[in-house]
Write the structure tokens for this entry.
Amino acid sequence: MRKLIIDQTASSPKVTLDPDNNTFEISGESRPPDVSGFYNEILRWMDDYSEHLGSSAQINPPVVFNLDFEYFNSSSAKYILDFCKQVGTVRSKGKNVSINWHYEEGDNDMLEVGKEMSRMAKLPFQYVRKGPG
Amino acid sequence: MLHLKKFLDYTGRIDYKIIDQLLLNLKNNREYTNLDKTTAKRVYAIVVECLENIVKHSVTLPHADSVTLPTISAGKAGDKVIIKAGNPISDNSREKVEAALNLVNELDGASLASLYEDKMDGKSRPNDNGARLGFILMRLKSGNKIDFSFTNIDDSHLHFDMQISVNKYHEKVNY
């Protein structure tokens, strides 16, 4: 299964989707000028990975997607929700995949948005609070 | 009238590179960084939506001056943060923008949150008046209605201006 690595920029997050090293993370600020181009690449990768997982008997170790956004704009939000739904679909098929939703201590809105995304994606998230700095 | 202590003030052409620079300047501004984290992030989110709105919908006029160029500012005024944004638009865009903003301003908190979810889910409603996710988010984040106005520039163009007052986080949000 191929990996997807995208470097962070001022307006787009760092993406590390690396099955070989069991590292799955999207982190930083998300307001890419070409939001559909940026996220469609991620959604296509997730499609492929879902297919790959579907053909595997079991997942060991478990797959944890770490979503660690400093900020995302309204256009990105729709795609992030789509990504969470894809993870939810894989989980509904009995695969051991989950999402860790990271938020900074004091950033109550990011925590609340995570809870909304979790509900809309029908997928329980684990919430990871980061300390200041 | 309350004095506006600005921490963002720009008039000129706006593209994605300029947005990056303006946001970097904002993040380094002491007046901005002194805001509590939740208020600061709400202000940042609204400023980004305003700037992207300008890039996507502003028209470029040949006679560029302080009246016709896009503009953005943000600053503290008493217990609120005031964000102002403006840009020239075509006269024929007015009706659509006005309908979208009127709808967003009329909805109560629960209806607004419900419309936001539908938009996120890609569902369209017959009476949503083309309400944009960005406008909905501005209203939800600010806790206040969006003030807006149109000023004639010439026969086919208007200057569209918005003002968003953001409640400081410790206050109760009233829709």
Summary: Strands of chain A lie at 4-6, 14-18, 23-30, 63-72, 97-104, 125-130. The domain at 4-130 of chain A is CATH 3.30.750 (Transcription Regulator spoIIAA).
